[in-house]
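Batch job 17 of 40 flagged for manual review because the log was empty.
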Amino acid sequence: MLRLGLIVVLLCFLASVRAFAADTPDGNWLTADHNGVIHIAPCGDGYCGQIGSIKLAPGEAMPVDWQGDPQCKLTIVQTTSQSRGDHGPVWQGVVLDPRSGVSHPMLLYFNASGGLVLHGYALIPLLGESTVWTQYAGPVFSDCHFPG
């Protein structure tokens, strides 16, 4: 009986650690197409996401943004406020298209399986599109080369 009690306590502890870990988007996130890693960290009153890695073929040059600058370390996600949704925190902000320089409103939140959902939209969230990023624990190099 004591063993069962210890197992229950351990499972509750692990569940609370997972729930706590999902309260912030800090860390490295693999994009849905697995071609890049976005590094999210606190900035100002919210979070910012920079391009941390891009998958490139051997000898391929780093893609450039709309101004002709390399996309490496370009901030493409900025949150401005946080609210509480049905399943946890929801961050509002903007997402930048690095090719055009156009920013769109977006929501950032966790799905039930722990993926980070970026939902960009035009006028209202209903008129938008979502992509799911997964946590990435692999290496990220300073030159933004993606080894994956």
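Reviewer: the log was empty due to a logging misconfiguration, but the result itself is present. Residues 24-135 form a domain with the Lipocalin fold (CATH 2.40.128.520). Unflagging and moving on to job 18.
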